[in-house]
Design brief:
The complex is a heterodimer of chains A (604) and B (257). Helices cover 73% and strands 2% of the residues of chain A. Chain A has 604 residues and is mainly alpha-helical. In chain B, helix 4 crosses helix 5 and helix 6 runs parallel beside helix 7. Classes of the chains: A mainly alpha (604), B alpha/beta (257). The complex binds adenosine-5'-triphosphate and magnesium ion (MG).
């Protein structure tokens, strides 16, 4: 969009910004009762704050227990000599974040004034903290808070005074990015973190500063992110933005799995077997499927596509039944692939069209199959990692990976369930309603136990399911039921006229659902869906009960059992609370931004 | 001559039947909304449907593209009978455009995307081609400059014109209008009617439910008057406005004119 200069006469009048003193008078001390309330609640707040500070700075709380255990909290027992993998993975993520910011041109509107207000607020709180810290606090900390607080307030005042038009001048997104990078890297380089290693299954203490093995990679990663953002913005003017967005969506769906299973897990391929079995099988499905789909997506062959799709569904089901009873051995990969090609064949009439559209459909299948087989081969191969106590994922990395994939997997499942529940077919409705009500009537912890302990007993030999996968399945099943209910609320808000208009144009039921009904329903459901995602993120802490070492378990039981920090729970728990809060709050802010963007798009 | 073919000129009678309704009956639960309707619409004919509120006008034209399902009688659209075991209902619907009283534009899509969606996905047109056609239609309904906006940012009259363009983009053989101007402010009514008149002059087969008597008088080839789910009278505008046969028609027209 080109910049259009709005003639002055058409600009909305500026709301005069009130001075802080006036705001305080009008909002906090407008009447006697208002003043009393203000004073009373301020005192209560100060008392609470002082108590919290007392906990934080009490002599019993040994904060080195957190500072020293950073590595444990974030990656648990991932081998130190393999850390370059972690950095590679994080680098890939940062790169994708930078590229996505550029692709969607995510420009949160932050004015200079808002930053100044935030700075002043932080400064004021810091001064208050400095003033009311309990006597036991070392005086250096007190003075530190006071000095930093005053400095921030002065900075805020300077910023508003020196920069003209602080109300309206916006900080470019790049500036924000750089600001965050400077703060994080500064902390890493100058704050004295310690280091904990892992040897023979037991943690080994090793005090001292975190060495450049962390600060350097993190700094480099922020530089990568900033560089991709800048490059992406520059490119965005030349290349097709839609293409970049589709690529990024594809990456976010499949990329993290690659990182977790192929980079972090480092499978040790047996190349003879890979070349003899895996590659030919993948190639057969990729090439054969692409040819079949190209043929079936010819508009005149939609009946044939339905017949072949149905046959393939039957074949796929048969393979699963055969596996269940152990009639003949067949690789899981092949069973999954049959199921996928059946679905794709059924979808072929929907994608039918001219030659280029059909080529794209077939090409998409080909690419997807290659990735799919590569990933499954990686997952089925033993890992080279020399890990004392499996699984290889732990700490914050585990929390985030599980949460991310549960959200990703339960979303489509939730969409399908909600559609089934509102469908005209009684059988779908009954099945989906039963599923949703059963799952919602059972505590999450029960579902997790069921999946980790009971499920493996039901499965026949040869269909073993790893602990992590079982827990992941349990979470997904649970979360999908709630997602479905949230989306159903959205579906009900779509007016009947929308269905009728879509029908009158000749859209099929699938097209109507995908292009008209779901987009509107999902928009309405965003706040609830994000609420559900936040809940899922926090509930990952239950993974501890089935043996996982997530961030909460490490803080609550691993650190307090280290010889140096016996019984030190509070600092670590306080620290992970802050970590949880930062992530959850960012998600909720992001959803607000998304809603605002969508609303701005279609103002009524 | 059957009721359905009343008041046809000889030339008109020789044309092809685009819509044929014979003894169409429809119940909502116990309530009978259509009590055996006979109507024929010829190729390139404009038929206006009149009648008091609740007389079944909407129900009738919604049965024609099967948004409602009739229980008895037959409806034949362009030679294809509407039955329960039809497999390609989408195919028929894509040949019949429909414009609603409440516009029913898709609020999450831009005007351009509203118009191109069905051509791209139902008619399998290339996007470029569909967009060019859409711009042509927006030109024709007089709002090419609104292509990038969302429906919520347009006035009612503009929205209804987009809805007409959206239907026309499918190149339908028949257009159905269900009170297209009833939800509009008076000053916007004429801009929509102008588009419809234009369409009628272009030879489109149209069935229009409306209370706009000016439009009926000027554009309609024939009018149908319905009451309580029945066709009471069929005739030319001249017949209706000068000398209707039935008492009930006279009463209705005297109230509305
Ligand atoms: N979905 C439905 N369920 C039950 N009754 C219905 C339904 N739709 C319409 N009806 C009834 O059928 C009758 C005919 O309705 P219809 O909408 O066809 O009337 P109309 O002639 O279009 O009236 P108006 O001028 O008010 O639009 C009305 O009495 C109405 O109450
Ligand atoms: Mg009506």
């Amino acid at each position: 969009m080109s910049d259009v200069t709005v003639p002055t006469s058409q600009r909305a009048p500026e709301t005069p910004s009130t001075s802080p003193a006036r705001w305080v008078r009008e909002n906090l001390f407008s009447s006697v009762s208002n003043a009393i309330q203000t004073v009373f609640f301020s005192l209560v707040l100060l008392g609470l704050l002082r108590w919290v500070l007392g906990q934080i700075f009490s002599e019993e709380a040994n904060w080195t227990s957190v500072a020293t255990n950073m590595r444990l909290l974030f990656t648990y027992n991932y081998p130190t000599e393999q850390f370059v993998r972690i950095w590679f993975a994080a680098g890939a993520l940062f790169l994708a974040v930078g590229a996505s910011f550029a692709a969607w041109n995510l420009n949160p509107v932050v004015t200079v004034r808002r930053i100044a207000v935030a700075l002043a607020g932080t400064g004021a709180v810091s001064v208050v903290v400095g003033l009311i810290t309990p006597e036991a606090t070392p005086s250096s900390i007190r003075t530190g808070f006071l000095v930093v607080g005053v400095a921030l307030v002065v900075l805020a005042v300077l910023v508003t005074r020196l920069i003209p038009n602080a109300d309206r001048r916006q900080i470019p997104f790049l500036g924000l990015l750089i600001g965050v990078a400077v703060v994080v890297c500064g902390v890493l380089w100058f704050f004295p973190f310690g280091d904990y290693g892992f040897a023979d299954g037991a943690p080994t203490a090793e005090s001292g500063t975190i060495d450049s093995s962390t600060s350097l990679p993190v700094t480099v990663m922020f530089l990568i992110m900033i560089a991709t953002y800048v490059a992406g913005r520059a490119l965005a003017r030349r290349i097709d933005l839609g293409w970049l967005r589709r690529t990024m969506i594809g990456w976010w769906v499949i990329g993290p799995a690659f990182i977790v299973f192929l980079v972090l897990r480092d499978p040790e391929f047996d190349w003879g077997y890979v070349l003899a079995v895996d590659v030919p099988m993948g190639a057969a499905f990729a090439v054969g499927g692409a040819v079949l789909l190209y043929a079936l997506s010819k508009p005149s062959r939609s009946d044939l596509a339905r017949v072949i799709g149905a046959l393939l569904v039957a074949l796929a089901l048969f393979h699963w039944v055969a596996a269940f009873f152990g009639w003949y051995p067949m690789l899981q990969k092949a069973r999954f692939s049959f199921a996928l090609i059946a679905v794709a064949a059924l979808l072929a009439p929907t994608f039918a069209g001219e030659r280029s559209a059909r080529l794209r459909f077939a090409g998409g299948w080909f690419g997807f199959m290659v990735l799919f087989h590569w990933l499954l081969t990686g997952i089925n191969t033993p890992s080279t990692l020399d890990i004392a106590a499996p699984p290889f994922l732990g700490g914050f990395v585990l929390t985030v990976s599980i949460a991310y994939y549960v959200m990703l997997a339960s979303f489509p499942l939730g969409v399908l369930l909600s559609l089934a529940r509102t469908s005209k077919m009684p059988i779908f409705r009954v099945l989906s309603t039963t599923y949703i009500e059963v799952v919602r009537g059972v505590p999450l912890i029960t579902v997790l136990f069921f999946f980790s302990i009971m499920l493996p007993l039901f499965l026949p030999g040869g269909m073993g399911i790893s602990d992590l996968a079982a827990v992941f399945a349990g979470y997904t099943v649970f979360s999908a039921a709630y997602m479905a209910e949230n989306i159903r609320g959205g579906l009900q808000s779509v007016r009947r006229g929308q269905y009728e208009a879509a029908d009158a144009l000749g859209l099929t039921t699938v097209q109507r659902t995908a292009f008209i009904v779901l987009p509107q329903a999902l928009r309405v459901s965003i706040p609830n869906l994000v609420g559900q995602a936040i809940a899922t993120f926090k509930e990952t802490s239950l993974i501890a009960i089935v043996g996982g070492f997530d961030i909460l378990r490490i803080a609550n039981s691993t650190i307090p059992n280290q010889p140096d920090f016996l019984g030190q729970k509070r600092p670590a728990l306080f620290f992970i609370s802050v970590v949880y809060f930062i992530v959850a709050y960012s998600m909720s802010r992001a959803s607000r931004n998304l809603e605002e963007r969508l609303e701005a798009g279609q103002a009524r | 001559m059957s009721i359905a073919d009343q008041a046809l000129t000889e030339e008109m009678a020789s044309r092809r039947d685009m819509i044929v309704c014979r003894g169409v009956k429809k119940w909502f639960g116990d309530f009978q909304a259509l009590a055996g309707v006979d109507v024929t619409v010829k190729d390139r004919e404009v038929m206006v449907v009149l009648g008091p509120s609740g007389s079944g006008k909407s129900t009738l034209i919604r049965c024609i593209n099967r948004l409602e399902v009739h229980q008895e009688g037959e409806i034949i659209v362009d030679g294809v009978e509407m039955t329960n075991d039809m497999r390609n209902i989408e195919k028929i619907r894509s040949e019949v455009g429909m414009v609603f009283q409440q516009f029913n534009l898709f609020p999450h899509l831009t005007v351009l995307d509203n118009i191109t969606l069905a051509p791209i996905w139902v008619r399998k047109r290339a996007r470029v081609e569909a967009e060019a056609k859409a711009m042509e239609l927006l030109e024709r309904v007089g709002i090419p400059e609104q292509a990038g906006k969302f429906p919520g940012q347009l006035s009612g009259g503009q929205q209804q014109r987009v809805a007409i363009a959206r239907s026309l983009a499918m190149e339908p053989k028949i257009m159905l209008f269900d009170e297209p101007t009833s939800a509009l402010d008076p000053e916007m009514i004429s801009e929509v009617l102008d588009v419809m008149k234009d369409l009628a002059r272009g030879g489109m087969t149209m069935m229009v439910v409306t209370h706009e008597m000016g439009f009926a008088r000027e554009v309609a080839d024939r009018l149908v008057f319905m009451e309580s789910g029945d066709v009471v009278e069929v005739g030319t505008p001249e017949h209706f406005f000068t000398n209707p046969t039935e008492e009930r028609t006279k009463l209705f027209l005297s109230q509305i004119l």
